[in-house]
Amino acid sequence: MIDYKCRVQDIGKNLMSFLIEQGHREIDTPCGGRGKCGKCLVKAKGALSEPTEREKELLGELIHRGYRISCLTYIERDFSYELPDPRDPEVVTYFSEDRLKVELTPGKRFMAVDIGTTTVALYCIDGATGKIFDKASFVNKQSIYGADVISRLVYAENGGADDLKQSVNLDIFEEAVMRFGDGEELPDYCVICGNTAIEHFVTGEDATGIAKLPFKPASLFGCEYEMPFAKKTYIAPCVAAYVGGDITCGAAACDMDRVEELTLYIDIGTNGEIVLADKDRALCCSAAAGPAFEGANIECGCIAHTGAIEKVWYDGGLKYKTIDNAPAIGICGSGLIDCAAALLESGELDETGRLEKDKYRLYRDIYISQKDIRSLQTAKAAIAAGIKTLLAEMKKPVTAVKKVIIAGGFGMHIDPDSACTIGLIPSELRGRIEFSGNCAGLGAVNCALSEAERKRTEAFAKKLEYIELSGHKKFNQFYIDEMFFE
Fold first, then answer.
1. Average pLDDT of the segment spanning 134-150
2. Running DSSP on this structure, what letter comes out for residue 97?
3. What is the distance between the alpha carbons of residues 470 and 481, in angstroms, rounded to a whole number?
């Protein structure tokens, strides 16, 4: 344990805020320090505030092992603390390089960065060959200000915009220096894509308009900025407040602007962005799924990293597999989906979402609870209702969809049968699902290598018809229907 001699200015300070000030940015804060998730665990003893009833409820048995919820604990005088081992998430940087669209520019070097809500993927490209010569992936340190975009928008509005900008920009700069060299050696051109809010955070644009009606962002980007990590930086074009440059880059990379037959493109995360297109029209929407798919707000949830339960099946009881076959430390989003599907098929979970028992244990103190199932229901209902709303707007039946493209790192872990079993993806589309890896990263690399691809992505962003789901009568009805499991 680290012993700390309390300074006068630290008395009364929130323990989580203190730890972040001390540089301990590995602390897990999905709810942004609002005392809701119980994930910012720290072992601590000494002159600290007594646990509140809320803290006792979140800690359960852990309170007897010396743990505290840091956002609910306040410093009184000298104390000691011990942080849990940091765990890096598994970041999917993969995509098929056969799909790169290259304009060779000898003597130039490029960088592409896909900034996700939880993680960042960075690609270094040689303009002479059009080949990726290095990759990096790391946690988006904006996470300490909240696991989801809404929490960060609130933080920005309360004076934290510069923290959000610097927390990720500094990491990108350090990675660029490490891989390209300082000063004149930095990449000639960088392309950044992310959701609309993150692109505002990174550039320092005012994100206030994204958080409230009429959800009008300060910029839809598709333009260049002066940034410290490249000679020129291009920020990918967005469509609306909740359909960002990661979607335009990813969907364009998957040729959604050129499809003939009806095709679905889905990036499943805290927000589920959906594109539905055929040769005549291209629609898009954003469904607020919440952080359940990232393992947040799940009692034993965690992000996808070593030891996370990623696969679950039923064989006389729940069986599981962890990432890297390491000892289980929690359940990530794909494991949660599998778990619900397995319990549905065994009859221990009914179509209303009611479990036969309140908890099903997978390993020691790791379990899935009735509360977790309810969180999953709301998340999957939002995505499924978004899909059905776009189909209704297009006046097409589900069976008209010929292909479903699942994009993003989370999508690489999802079992398609489990997704269809719980109704996340319409069951009629079994056998039509393909996983394309980090499509946003692919699109960003294409935009870095090719001015024509940048122009094409901009044109596609303008072509996309945005369907606002909040207050949409059909969406609201679909959402209620989709709260049930199939």
1. 85
2. G
3. 16
Residues 394, 397, 400, 402, CA torsion sign: positive
Domain 97-250+441-449 has CATH 3.10.580.10: no
Lookup: tokens for 242: 């909740």
Q: Are 328 and 320 in contact (CB under 8 A)?
A: yes
Q: What is the DSSP string of 337-387?
A: HHHHHHHHHHTSB-TTS-BSSSEEEEETTEEEEHHHHHHHHHHHHHHHHHH
* Residue in the block written with tokens 């209704």: 392
Tokens of 420: 């269809």
- CB contact set of 410 (below 8 Å; sequence gap of 6+): 268, 269, 293, 294, 304, 333, 334
Six-digit token string for 357: 């028992």
The H or E element spanning position 440 is: helix 439-449
Cis, peptide link before residue 237, omega less than 30° from 0? no
- From residue 433, alpha-carbon distances to 195, 244, 397, 427, 429 in Å are 24, 23, 17, 11, 7
How far apart are the C-alpha atoms of 57 and 19, rounded to whole Å? Answer: 23
For the stretch 287-318, pLDDT in tens is 988 778 877 778 888 877 788 899 999 998 99
Q: How confident is the model at residue 90 (pLDDT cuts 50, 70, 90)?
A: low
Q: Specify the amino acid at residue 365.
A: D
Q: DSSP string spanning 428-471?
A: GGTT-EEE-S-HHHHHHHHHHH-HHHHHHHHHHHHHPEE---TT
CATH superfamily, domain 2-82, is Beta-grasp domain (3.10.20.30)
- In DSSP notation, 46-71 reads EEEPPPPHHHHHHHGGGGGGTEEEGG
The CATH 3.10.20.30 domain(s) of the chain lie at 2-82
Strand partners, 272: 287
What are φ and ψ of residue 2, in 5° steps? Answer: -95, 125
CB-based contact 305:330 (threshold 8 Å) = no
End-to-end CA distance of the chain: 49
What is the spatial distance between Cα 423 and Cα 425, in angstroms, rounded to a whole number?
5
* CA dist., res. 332 & res. 448, Å (int): 32
Distance CA 24, CA 130 (A): 38
Neighbours of 183 (CB within 10 A): 7
Where do you find CATH 3.30.420.480 in the chain?
97-250+441-449
pLDDT bin (cut points 50, 70, 90) of residue 88 is: low
In DSSP notation, 152-216 reads HHHHIIIIIHHHHHHHHHHHHHHHHHHHH-SGGGS-SEEEEEE-HHHHHHHHT---GGGSSTT--
Q: Return the H-helix or E-strand segment holding 331.
A: strand 330-331
The pLDDT tens digits for 341-359 are 999 999 999 999 999 998 9
pTM (predicted TM-score): 0.83
